[in-house]
Amino acid sequence: MLRIIDTETCGLQGGVVEVASVDIVNGKIVNPMSDLVRPDRPISHQAMAIHKITEEMVADKPWIEDIIPRYYGSPYYAAHNASFDQRMLPELPDSEWICTVKLARRLWPGIKYSNMGLYKSLKLEVETPANLHHHRALFDCYITAALLLRIMEESGWTPDQMVTITGRPALVATMAFGKYRGKPIAEIAQDDPGYLRWMLNNIKELAPDLRMTLKHYLQS
């Protein structure tokens, strides 16, 4: 069994407002679970504009510590940009993690690696929840599960091989947030290296791959 998990948060620094998962069993997407969560901090306006989860929606919901045991029980957890979700969910027991971003970069170099970008470019077929939208946790779980099934179909990788690939450092091609969102990091390093240095020195929660990428281009 593989459990695909996703979180929505108050912002890049954390504060879970929603967690969801689906399982892959015998090549099928099954066992959807989803919970809104009362966060430990205010929801930023930027985050609220993306996932549309408001303070009122989560004001009376349980804390993450009360919800997360429902998501225990899988030997493998998979997520799109797994390092972020793993960092948001330290309450999960130790298991192996699989990152569909890293797998996609390895399997299909030179394309866009956002969840919806891969969904469209690969023409993934999956039935998503009718009452939800992109950037709601359960909706994104279905997209990531369909992506992972396609990756396994085309690559033949076993879960343990995917764990190994996930654990290897990998250069990030484009900036995923901020004023240069969508721009190749190699170009940012040429045009505005000071911005990359500022990120390294001031954003403590940078994903390890992004931190390595910024150092790589600044030292080139």
UniProtKB/TrEMBL annotation:
GO BP of this protein: DNA replication proofreading
Exonuclease domain boundaries: 1-157
Pfam families: ExoX-like_C, RNase_T
Signal peptide: none
Keywords recorded for this protein, A-Z: Exonuclease, Hydrolase, Nuclease
Cellular compartments per GO CC: cytosol
CDD domains per the UniProt record, alphabetical: DEDDh
Gene Ontology molecular functions: 3'-5' exonuclease activity; nucleic acid binding
Name recorded for this polypeptide: Exodeoxyribonuclease X
